[in-house]
Amino acid sequence: DTSNVQTVRTTSFGCGKLGHQVWPCSIATSLSLIHDYHSDENKDQVVVELGAGCGLPSMVCRDVLPFSKVIATDFWYSDQESERDLERLIPEVWHGINLKWNMEESPSTTPPNKQVRVQQVDWHNLESVRQVGPVDLVVGSDVIYYPMDIEPLWNTIETLFRECGA
Asked: Which of 22, 23, 47, 50 is the most exposed place for a label (fewest CB within 10 A)?
């Protein structure tokens, strides 16, 4: 049965920056989600993926699982922003090719009963996190690469649980 085959666009420029490829943990997370959340009791739930990169777990939540709303989040800089994080983050144009395309523009048609959104979220700015809105489940895989992001990620998860309903 190929009805649930996922095609994921990645970037093969090999610069070692974040958000350009599907990591093995993303595949494992996707399989775990399929195992744990396949029942219709999750059909009215909202799931957010933190640090989605190419967005494979979000794609699985959109195409295979019964969640009603899927929010794929990541952080990238745009041309209007300062040169902060240029050493570790790929430019927005590459996220457009990957995460936005995989979630919003790919040939996979979003089922009519689902809402899908890609959102820029900066873990270092809790107001950015609050803009995600109410969620029921927070998903992340292989999201920490730099020690400077550990505390902001923790604060992000805490904010989503305390203030956004997760």
From this structure: 23
